[in-house]
């Protein structure tokens, strides 16, 4: 593509994201869930007709994807590249210097979804440990697994060979919005999040990007990744004031 066409494409996408209502819609889809235009209108605090116009613009620019199921129409982020771009923009948008504690809600800062993989303090710690342990090897294309890494992920029950055949990046770094350091993205990062949810190491909020680390998850992540995990913000509150409310259903 000609450089001038690149410039036009960037400016069009930037203009689309810059509109506050569209930004709210896109950020709400960062949890990997698909939502209706009615739900997105409520999130963006605009009318149904305005939401439809915004979504049409985002769809034309390949930022969102439309899914039709019978009478129902759902929207999701177009692909992981959009999620990575949004996460990077969130980093740039933070006004505080990196040495300051970012103004991110505590639960989101500890663990959350970044489209289809895990983000936050927990994800960054796991990413750093995988690098330190030699599981991940840095390449020009992103990450590849060492022999030790392949054994480790096989031990987790993740079929690495199947992931390599997918039409997406196998493994890559994704700059974390709250930590401003990388977490694991790509097909491998998505598989790790899916595993964590399936095995109930984490539970996912239905209405936000927040992930909650379970007691089982704390034990398994600490053991398998040889990590000493910090307490979650809500864990500290629960220790002071026991609650009888059960876990959120997933």
Automatic annotation (TrEMBL):
Domain of life of the source: Bacteria
Gene3D superfamilies per the UniProt record, alphabetical: Winged helix-like DNA-binding domain superfamily/Winged helix DNA-binding domain (1.10.10.10)
Signal peptide: none
CDD domains in UniProt: HTH_ARSR
Domain HTH arsR-type: 2-97
Stretches of the chain forming a coiled coil according to its record: none
Pfam families: HTH_5
Protein name per the record: Metalloregulator ArsR/SmtB family transcription factor
Organism this protein belongs to: Pseudomonas violetae
